[in-house]
Specification:
- The chain is mainly alpha-helical.
- It folds into two domains: 63 residues, Helicase, Ruva Protein, domain 3, CATH 1.10.8.50; 45 residues, 30s ribosomal protein s13, domain 2 (Irregular).
- It is built from six helices and two strands.
- It has a two-stranded antiparallel ribbon with strand order 1-2.
- Strand 1 and strand 2 form a beta hairpin.
- Helix 4 crosses helix 5.
- It is elongated.
């Protein structure tokens, strides 16, 4: 297993598919990273050497926004919606669907898992 922070990536899998397991890296970003490093399509993590490993971790650390930053930005945006008291902010505060989904029959999951956030 190849470990990057708390993520365990499969060695036998293609490097593009295994990078997608990291929160914040999708299909396009993984292809971009592999093309920058010069990895061709059937390239797995067990073929990587120490030099490429350090370059890959450097790129992931300094040139991409990963889990903590992305979650912090999302939380700040929701908190901003609370402050300006918009419709979406009120729906977030009441733990109801925000994007116009039906609430009569389908909102049971959203209503069940109430997330209480500080609004100061």
């Amino acid at each position: 297993m190849f470990t990057y922070k708390q993520y365990n990536l499969d060695i036998k899998r293609d490097i593009r598919l295994s990078l997608q397991l990291i929160y914040g890296i999708g299909w396009l970003k993984s292809i971009f990273i592999c093309s920058r490093l010069g990895f061709s399509y059937p390239f797995s993590l067990n073929n990587i050497n120490l030099y490429n490993f350090f370059i890959l971790t450097y790129i992931l650390d300094f040139f991409t926004w990963l889990e903590i930053r992305i979650k912090r930005i999302i939380f700040q945006n929701i908190k901003n919606l609370y402050k300006i008291e918009s419709y979406k902010g009120i729906r977030h505060k009441d733990s109801l669907p925000v994007r116009g989904q039906r609430t009569r029959t389908n909102a049971s999951t959203k209503k069940r898992y109430k997330i209480i956030l500080d609004t100061d």
